[in-house]
Design a protein that fits this description.
The protein has 16 helices and 19 strands. The chain has helices spanning about 5-10, 10-30, 35-40, 65-75, 130-135, 155-160, 165-170, 205-210, 240-255, 265-275, 295-310, 325-335, 335-345, 360-375, 400-420, 435-460, and strands spanning about 35, 55-60, 80-85, 100-105, 110-115, 120-125, 140, 175-180, 190, 215-225, 225, 230-240, 260-265, 285-295, 315-320, 350, 355, 380-385, 390-395. Helix 14 runs antiparallel to helix 15 (about 400-420). It is globular, with a radius of gyration of 23 Å.
């Protein structure tokens, strides 16, 4: 058996097996297989990855049976198989460092059933978050997990996505009831049920959620839905310092109010958002706070929120009272990544991600801001501070080697600080290629050994998304 993935997938015999697999898939799928460099390069990176690792071919299945056929061919020929959704992931999850076959699941975009009385739906993996919510708009229900990008449901399951509304609704893991999954050998299984709870056997659903396509390819998902909100109240408030803003967020979380989301943007990010989204908000550390409930309770919560933030030094907290005002604010928040990139055209970008216990958040964010300023970097901080998750968008000139080295060192300190505080190296981006070494630091060799044994048992030839999660 080859000792490394490179030996396993990149030798002359591997090339011959790959050619056989591509020929078999082409005979079966015809014009739904492509080996063109344009298609392969398009599928060789995600949103946050600079280098392209293209697959050797891309296939567009339309049913679970077709995914099963692709997997059986790849298993027989021992060829890498990488699932691709919308390509919005940030840690290199969808690239193909050892070549192989990319299975683009975007055509598997059927909403199979909506059971409004059970507040659930069943969708194919290629359905996007926005597509689903448009379909549900007349039911009084919606799927609230919001990672910002219009990701596919299958991709959100694979990366255990979360986002701005996690504080209220939980992450993807808390909103998945059942899965249909194609395994490495081509077999198809179903795990979980439509019931709200179960004590039957191992919880395979939770094992697949967040496995990044390394244990199986999710083809169908049963999702928990939620009632659309009766009323929401939104407040924006600037603060004199990062610490005062984050301390206010901590007290808000501990207050017991029905908070939908609390987003933090530092002064650098606010400057970028003002320019990009034509806003005129103070360019200081800022919280976007949204509460939910009945029309009466929301009004009371808005007043209570103002009391708390003013006690922490907030400067003139402002309410967004109309749906249009709220939509504009949250659109600006969701476009923060693009706003930052627009501030430095031609520069490269690294989007970081750590999560800490809420009690440790102020120290972690403040120390990170101090590190950035001391290094002289352009790097806004933002995040879902209501659940302890924050990001730094590092921008650097690709012609300046020292800038990238400074970012790597600072990011290492960010993660070390998060782990020391009892947190994690990634709250929502996942491991992919980018954080494999950090996963070892966080989990320890005992847990890593168990993960590798699970991978070996379920995918003995290592064909499913090779190189991800594990070195």
């Amino acid at each position: 058996m080859p000792d490394t993935l490179a030996e396993r997938f990149c030798g002359s015999s591997a090339r011959a097996r790959l050619d056989v697999a591509i020929a078999q898939l082409t005979a079966h799928f015809r014009d739904r297989v492509s080996t063109s460099s344009a298609h392969c390069e398009q599928h060789g990176r995600g949103e946050g990855q600079l280098r392209v690792y293209p697959p050797d071919a891309v296939v567009w299945p339309e049913t679970t049976a077709e995914v099963s056929f692709i997997a059986s061919v790849c298993a027989r020929e021992k060829v890498p198989l990488i699932a691709f959704g919308a390509g919005t992931s940030l840690e290199g999850h969808v690239c193909a460092p050892y070549g192989g076959i990319c299975v683009d699941l975007s055509r598997m975009n059927q909403i199979l059933a909506v059971h409004a009385e059970d507040a659930e739906c069943i969708v194919q993996c290629g359905v996007t978050r926005e597509q689903l919510n448009v379909h549900l708009r007349d039911t009084g229900l919606y799927f609230p997990v919001d990672p910002g990008a219009n990701a596919t449901i299958g991709g959100m399951v694979a990366t255990r996505a979360s986002g701005t509304t996690t504080l209220h609704y939980g992450a993807t893991a808390q909103n998945v009831r059942a899965l249909e999954v194609v395994l490495a050998n081509g077999n198809t299984i179903r795990c979980g049920t439509r019931a709200i709870k179960s004590s039957a056997g191992y919880d395979l659903v939770r094992i697949f959620v967040g496995s990044e396509g390394t244990l199986g390819i999710v083809t169908e998902v049963t999702l928990r839905l939620h009632p659309r909100l009766e009323a929401t109240g939104c407040i924006t408030c600037a603060f004199p310092s990062v610490r005062e803003a984050v301390d206010a967020a901590i007290e808000l979380v501990q207050s017991g109010m029905q908070l939908l989301r609390i987003e933090f943007l530092d002064e650098v990010q606010m400057r970028a958002c003002n320019l990009y989204s034509n806003l005129e908000l103070p360019e200081k550390p800022t919280l976007f706070i949204e509460s939910t409930g009945s029309a009466t309770s929301v009004g009371e919560q808005v007043e209570r929120t103002k009391e708390i933030v003013l006690a922490h030094g907030a400067l003139n907290p402002d309410s967004a009272t109309t749906p249009e005002q709220r939509a504009r604010l949250w659109r600006a928040r969701h476009q923060a990544y693009y706003a930052t990139r627009a501030m430095r055209p031609g520069w490269n970008c690294i989007t970081s991600d750590v999560c800490v216990p809420i009690s440790q958040l102020a120290d972690a964010v403040s120390a990170t801001r101090q590190d950035i300023d001391a290094a002289g970097l352009f790097a806004p901080i933002l995040g879902h501070v209501g659940d302890g998750n924050f990001h730094v968008i590092f921008m650097y000139d690709p012609a300046v080697d020292a800038a990238r080295q400074a970012i790597d060192a600072l990011y290492d300190r960010m993660i070390a600080r998060a782990l020391a505080a009892g947190g994690t190296c990634t709250g929502e981006h996942g491991i992919g290629l980018g954080k494999r070494a950090k996963l070892v630091e966080e989990s320890g060799e005992g847990a890593m050994t168990l993960m590798r044994q699970l991978k070996q048992a379920w995918d003995p030839d290592g064909i499913l998304n090779p190189g991800k999660i594990f070195e």
